[in-house]
Structures are given as C-alpha cells and as structure tokens.
Amino acid sequence: MNKDLIFESPVTVTQPSLPDFESYMSYVKEIWDRKWLTNNGPVHEDFKKQLKQYLHSSNVELFTNGHLALEVSLKALGLTGEVITTPFTFASTIHAIRNCNLEPVFCDIDPNKFNIDPLKIEELITERTSAILAVHVFGQPCDVSAIEEIADKHGLKVVYDAAHAFGVEVDGKGIANFGDVSMFSFHATKVFHSIEGGMLSYSDDSLTPVLNAYKNFGMTSPEDINYIGTNAKMNEFQAAMGLCNLEIVDNEIKSRGEAFKRYMKELDKLKDIQLMNVPDAVKPNYSYFPVLLKDQGQRDFLSDQLAKYKVIARKYFYPLCSQFECYDYDANETPIALNVSNRVLCLPMHANLSVQEVSQICEIIQYELGDKSEGTN
Ligand code: T4K
Hints:
Helix content: 25-40%
Bound molecules: ligand T4K
Shape: globular
Strand order of the largest sheet: 2-10-9-6-5-3-4
Oligomer: single chain
CATH class of the largest domain: Alpha Beta
Number of domains: 2
CATH superfamily of the largest domain: Type I PLP-dependent aspartate aminotransferase-like (Major domain)
Number of strands: 17
C-alpha cells in the first residue's frame, strides 16, 4: 500500500448535493406559515409542474420514495401473474414485484450495458406474463425500441425502473417518455433528489386518478375507498428540496461529467478493468461509475484495498437479487448477470468529487492492481 495516497477523510461512493441554504429556508418559512404540510400542498403541485416541463413528460405523479412509486405503478396497471425482469438491480425492483403478489421471471443481461437483454426476453414469455419491468441500470438506457417491439407483439405492459436515470435522453428524447410507466427515485444518493422521494411518468391520462387513489389509501373521495391502497404521498418539505435542486441539477450533471471524463482517461490504460461506455445516441447523467474487474477475487481485493485508502467503493449490485436469502431462485439461470455481479465495483461518483481526487483514486487502483500496461478499453 502507498501511504502517500491515503485520503484525509472518507471518499464515499456518492454524496448528495445541497442547494443554497437560504433558498430552501424561504420555502420552509412559507410552509410553516401556511401550515399545509403534506397531501398535495402548493409546493408539491409546483414541483410537479416544473418536473413535467423539465422532463418533457405528459404526466407525472410524486411519491414519498421511489420504491412505493414502483409498487403503486404495478398495482395501478392491474398486472397479474409473471413479470419479466432483471436480477441485476437494487432489491427494491424485485421486492416491488413480490409485494404486489406477482412472480418475477429473471432474464439475463447485456454484458456491456448491464441491462436486460432484449434478445432473451421472448423465450421467457408465457400465457401468465403481463409485463416487462426493465431497469435503466446506472442510468444507461435499456434498448427501449426492442423492448417496445416485443411488448407490442405480445400485448405486454412495459414498466421502467428509471431510479438512476433522471435527465437521461436517448436520441434527443427524454427517458421519462418510454414504456407505460417510468419510475424515478429522488433519494439523497441520486443525481437529483428531494431527500427521499419518487416519481412516476406516464402517457395514459386515465392512470392519474388511479395512481392518486393508490398513494392515498385507495381513497377516491373522503367516503369512497375503491382500492386497497397505501400511503405514499410526498410531503411539502421534500417537494421544496426538489424544487431547489431542480435549479442546480444541470450543474450537478456537468460536474459529474468532468469526474467521468477523468476516470475514463486514467482507467483506460488498465487492461484488467472494463469500463461502461456511453453510446453516441445517449445524453448521460453520470449517476454511477461502475467498473468490471477480471474476476471476483480481484474485485473483492480492490474494494478492500480502496477502503484502506478511505475510498468507499460499493458492489452495486452484488449479490444478485435472485441470490437473496429471502427468495428461492437459481442465479445460474442468468449466467451473465451472475458474472457481472461478481466482478462489478462502483467507484465514487458525485458532483463534489474533484478531478484531482479522481486522479488520486485512479492512481491507487493502478498501484494496487500493479498494472501499468496498455489496455484495450
Ligand atoms: N430501483 C433501483 C434500481 C434503485 O437503485 C433504488 C434505490 C430503488 C429502485 C428504490 O428507490 P428509493 O425508494 O430509494 O427512492 C442506496 C439508496 O438508499 C437507494 O435509494 C439506492 N437505490 C441504492 C442503490 O443505494 P445504500 O444502502 O447503498 O445507501 P447508503 O446509505 O449506504 O448510502 C451510500 C453512500 O451515500 C454512503 O456511503 C454515503 C452517501 N450518503 C448517503 C446518504 C443517505 C450521504 O453522503 N448522505 C446521505 O444522506 O442504498
């Protein structure tokens, strides 16, 4: 280990950006004076309006977090039976399916983009399949055209878990505009956040009253409960944070872009490391910086060594969801996902990370892997 490269304080995998304190406080004062704290207050409504404009989306609804937004979307679409999805995602995706009494059917992933492989979806479709739940993992868009074609052919709904993909565009079109519904997470660890929070974007207007009922105990009026709903409403303080952060999100993405470029430049030299490239058609949000190591041993070694330098990388997403103890699935059915999960490591990526810090992290990696040879990335 090279002691000269140890950071003074921990460099975490992510760190939330915060808006100007006074601008948040002016919202807090307004909310305080009004005494309207939640249940579709004026700040919530303003946030919704501004998000619709920012994302060029026809409809958006806000939620207390991304996970409940996802669960509500699956219920509101009236899905039944089986849902084809990816095991290479955060626990939330699969828990949402199971919590809605649906059965996840795991499809293998693309080894370079880490998203569901559309070429492997059709063979998994049965008469019980009602939807495809695909995840834009690390903000990298799924193959949305291929997924749409399959869904149309078989009459399936498409739900995107776009938790990581706020602000991403494909061929100039906002990522919120694909599939029947897209879910975004506004958790503190995301590119764009409202402390905790979530959003659904969708095109079918008729979903609006259903989503609103589901997130408010299934109530359609004070005396009518039409659905077995939940409580998933976003409050005014969350919405205020969201509104403030919407003003800085473009800068957030720009700063992350600088860190991304520096990582790509420095790590491209290392032959053991596979990087995730951004296709030309994609406007990225640089939400994560995943790398694939040669094998699990090397990944675990690097993760442990980085921690000694106070660099806290994370193994998103290891283990695979199909390996969780609370479930009973066979992870060997998706060998590519299993391989990627065993080799992946997400390096620190956030707007407060300077390019000098990125260079230092890369120097540590180079030192620890003992690999100074030219790479092929
Ligand atoms: N679908 C997908 C694909 C998702 O990735 C997620 C969430 C969801 C659905 C569900 O969305 P939400 O219901 O969460 O809106 C984190 C997040 O809690 C979670 O939102 C996220 N995905 C997941 C990938 O990562 P942890 O357990 O890894 O977070 P934690 O607390 O270890 O934080 C990571 C690092 O961030 C810390 O080392 C330090 C830094 N941090 C974190 C927080 C919370 C801060 O600096 N400040 C903070 O306030 O799950």
